[in-house]
Specification:
The chain is mainly alpha-helical. Helix content is 62%, strand content 4%. It is globular, with a radius of gyration of 21 Å. It starts with a helix and ends in a 5-residue tail after the last helix.
């Protein structure tokens, strides 16, 4: 996976990789500890899978800043994100990875974003029923 990030997406580690490696080990430990705690506490396997899906997946991704910035989370829910282990791991990963723009033929964008933009633009043009009718001006 890291080879794909480095070669295709044009990402590189910024600085010393030690904090990234330590954070990855801690994040893995937190996820395993949460799963073990839930599995030991809840006797039903179906109920335990639902708790892990809700608490370990949905809440971590929604409240960790991966999908939505933490500043945009309502204040009443923002305090919960302080207890989500994914929040701190995502901060470390964002600090450690940076775009490598030197010598990029796409003007600083990675190959994936340039090809994605071309692909999505082509889809919008091909799937518009009638370009003249689908464009509306909002005043």
């Amino acid at each position: 996976m890291l080879v794909l990030l480095f070669t295709y997406f044009g990402l590189g580690l910024a600085g010393d990789p030690t904090p990234f490696i330590v954070a990855t080990i801690l994040y893995t430990f937190c996820v395993a500890a949460f799963g073990t705690m839930v599995g030991a506490t809840i006797p039903s396997q179906v109920a335990a899978m639902q708790v892990v899906a809700l608490g370990g997946f949905l809440l971590v991704f929604l409240l960790s800043g991966l999908i939505f910035p933490i500043e945009n989370i309502p204040v009443g829910l923002r305090w919960i994100s302080n207890f989500m282990w994914g929040r701190y791991y995502i901060e470390v990963v964002r600090m450690r990875y940076s775009k490598v723009a030197a010598g990029s033929p796409t003007g600083g964008r990675s190959r994936s974003s340039a090809s994605s933009a071309r692909f999505s633009t082509g889809l919008m043009v091909q799937h518009a029923p009638n370009a003249a009718q689908s464009v509306s001006v909002v005043k």
